[in-house]
What does this fold into?
Amino acid sequence: MSRIQNQQNTVWIRNGNAYSPIETIEIIGRLGTFKANMFPVKVFCSAVSAGCIAAFASGATLVASNIPWMAENTPGLVKTLSSILFPCALVMIFMSGADLFTGSTMLTGVACLQGRIPWHKMLLHWFICFWGNFAGCLFVMAVIFGYGGLFTDPAQVKLIQSVVYAKQVVPEWHQIFIRAIGCNWLVCLAAYLGMAGRDLMSRAMGMWWPVFCFAILGLDHVVVNMFYIPFGIWHHTPGVTVGLYIWKGIIPALLGNIIGGGGFCGMYYYFMYLHNQDPVPIDGIYFPADLAKLEEGGALPQYESDEYVVTTQEQKK
It folds into this structure.
């Protein structure tokens, strides 16, 4: 059990194999601050990497879904198997430190709410991530899968066309927008739970199940759509055009993902655990700006645990 104490109050936080909810959202704010201050070219390259990983995982789920007998006799099982596979995308993206637009809506959003970055840096990070993710998805879709000769079997082409038609043509604009809210709500919840872990397996398990929920529900993720819809256009899906994709595949999914990740996750956890609260140390270390403010205000908080005591004076040394 840990204690964060200053002149005003005491907050008890349990130490264990995972960070507490308040520590987790503080970690997210710090990571968002770091990412928002990265050199833009590095952000773009990182976002391209994330887009490529998302496209590879999406292609893998298409392969897992292409089991004719099971699709005909046990369609629910096929959907479950492909959905269990898909969370590997988020795990690989976050473990490699790549920048995903949908995750940035929470990470940099929390950092902005904490006052650690200005709003224009947050928007710039979103902008670069969006186009970097797009470039990565298109590269894997066109070069690796398209010109690489993958997914040329008639059954595979039919599957791609049916998936894209169901995602792009069938639903109304407002339905895609609402689904996108739920999608990034779950994706950012997965990122939040992953950040709470202290080891590789804990982080992977924390991320896995919320993403599984979004995948099996068929919710709309703007970055995943950057692979699926252009791939459907590549394979001449009836009724799917570039104009339709922009109007119904990008705009509603983009807006919905921002609300789901930035609002239902980022703003919610910030309000619950950081708003009007004392600065939060992570493993006994305060964020530098928080430490400076505490010292200027005359408060000397200390962080006690069963193994060590770290005061602001010791941290400063």
Remarks:
- The chain is about 70% helix and 5% strand.
- The first strand starts at residue 2 and ends at 5.
- The two ends are 25 Å apart (CA to CA).
